[in-house]
């Protein structure tokens, strides 16, 4: 596939002071600024049965416009699909959809934890066994 390339030429005329009486213009120097028209497209997908990771993405660029989408299977079993586009005029825009029911796992039952009542010993005869006196 051949791409059409656009070139923009800018002319720069340089005048140099030489040791003579006259000013002499040098040759015209052309600077070529290449303005490319980028184009690409790609896609990929992952379906890992061991980890349960499932996702895919595709994207197309034509000049300054990028369009694409990606999807991912969420931990609750639903699928999130994002369609997006981006350009210099509108910026980045995305539409997010969630497909399928959310299947949440039931919480595990909580067994009661047996405990004994806590008693505090305050010592005898006012010695305050529960409070340190600053010595060991």
Please estimate the helix content. Answer: under 10%
Mean pLDDT, rounded to whole units? Answer: 75
Radius of gyration: 37 Å
Instruction: Give the strand tally.
Output: 9
Span of the ends, CA to CA: 89 Å
Low-confidence stretches: 1-18
Number of helices: 0
Which oligomerization state do the chains in this entry correspond to?
single chain
**Helix-strand string:** EEEEEEEEE
Shape: elongated
- Major sheet: size, sense and barrel closure? 5 strands, antiparallel
Order of strands in the sheet with most strands: 5-6-7-8-9
- Share in β-strands: over 45%
Alpha-beta content class: mainly beta
Show the helix and strand layout:
Layout: E1 6-12, E2 15-17, E3 23-25, E4 29-35, E5 39-47, E6 54-62, E7 65-73, E8 79-87, E9 91-99
Antiparallel strand pairs: 1-4, 2-3, 5-6, 6-7, 7-8, 8-9
Short description:
The protein is mainly β.
Summarize this structure as a short list of keywords or feature phrases.
136 residues; two-stranded antiparallel ribbon; mainly beta; single chain; 0% helix; 5-stranded antiparallel sheet
Describe the structure.
This is Larval cuticle protein A2B-like. InterPro entries: CHIT_BIND_RR_consensus, Insect_cuticle, Insect_Cuticle_Struc_Prot. One of its GO terms (cellular component) is extracellular matrix. This protein has no helices and 9 strands. The protein has a domain at 6-99. 0% of the residues are buried. It has 136 residues and is mainly β. Strand 2 and strand 3 form a beta hairpin. Mean pLDDT is 75; it is low at 1-18. The strands form 3 sheets. A 5-stranded antiparallel β-sheet has the order 5-6-7-8-9, with no helix packed on it. The protein has a two-stranded antiparallel sheet with strand order 1-4.
């Amino acid at each position: 596939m051949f791409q059409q390339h656009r070139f923009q030429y800018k002319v720069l005329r340089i005048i140099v002071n030489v040791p003579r009486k006259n000013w002499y213009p040098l040759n015209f120097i052309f600077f070529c600024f290449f303005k490319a028209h980028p184009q690409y497209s790609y896609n990929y997908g992952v379906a890992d049965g061991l980890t349960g990771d499932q996702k895919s993405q595709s994207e197309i660029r034509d000049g300054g416009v990028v369009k694409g989408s990606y999807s991912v299977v969420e931990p609750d079993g639903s699928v999130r699909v994002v369609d997006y586009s981006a350009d210099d005029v509108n910026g980045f825009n995305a539409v997010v959809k969630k497909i399928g029911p959310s299947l949440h796992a039931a919480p595990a039952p909580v067994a009661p934890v047996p405990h004994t009542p806590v008693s505090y010993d305050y010592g005898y005869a006012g010695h305050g066994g529960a409070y340190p006196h600053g010595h060991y």
